[in-house]
What we know:
The complex is a heterodimer. Chain A is an alpha/beta fold.
Amino acid sequence: xSVDLGVLAxxxxxxxxxSDMAGKLGLTGIAVVGLHTEPFKTLTKKMMVYSRVIxxxxxxxxxxxxxDKNRRKSMIVSVPxxxxxxxxxxxxxxxxxLLTVDPTQENRLRDTTARLASIxxxxxxxxxxxxxKSTGLNRSKILKIYRESVTTAMDAGMDxxxxxxxxxxxxxxxxxxxxxxxxxxxxxxxxADSASSDxxxxxxxxxxxxxxxxxxxxxxxxxHKGEEQ
Amino acid sequence: xxxxxxxxxxxxxxxxxxxxxxxxxxxxxxxSLLSLxxxxxxxxxxxxxxxxxxxxxxxxxxCSLPSLQQVIAAAAVIGSINGTxxxxxxxxxxxxxxxxxx
Lengths: 229, 102
């Protein structure tokens, strides 16, 4: 079971073509940005579509407002690596699932941020789409940013998740192809396999448990309700 | 000269558009390998496209054992060939062609 947590479909009508392609590649789920109606949807027996929200706020208060509004509606909540204040706040907040590396921005993952994230189970997301679009020097610069971020995260014990960042179905990759790209980014084989399938799956499973009616907080759930007198 | 062990890779090239010739695909993988790992690694990979079915997109690549991972990574990061969006899917690796069909 492999899930791609980073599908950037521009239109809800594209979801079918994405899920067709994902099925051909052996994926069992995709997390799509812009599907705000429900946290997850079962398309077929073998294909689930999860909703994802990207929080683009410039200040902590703006990101906090967005997260309060969207957490219950979305399966995946991500924050792009931005200013140190917002990034560190997001790394510490257990409601944030992913910190996304943006290779076009100057902001890098710091050791301190990675350590905070490892404590609160926030993962680093690397989207491979920029690697597919670029060549030569531009690709080399992206590889440098990605490889540095991956090393920082792994050293701090922060999980790294590989996703496609695809804007069209051909941008998707199978989990095996993704794992090999992970090795290209400095991971060993076992870690790359986890980054492409185990870590995304565990995020989905963790968030599915949170959506269950009896869930109170991590490790606490209502097993049996007493009668009111 | 020490004999280098070979590996065979069964793959499928998904595409969105017109069909792609084996020669074009082979060239793109070479280019990607050269760009990512340099001339020495590309030369040592002994990359050779043994078979490629243009309509289904299925094919078999041959390369040296030490460069197998690099060949797969180089092929996986190819986003388009001659303007056609593609997705390279490695399916199976084996030490013999016969092993791929088992």
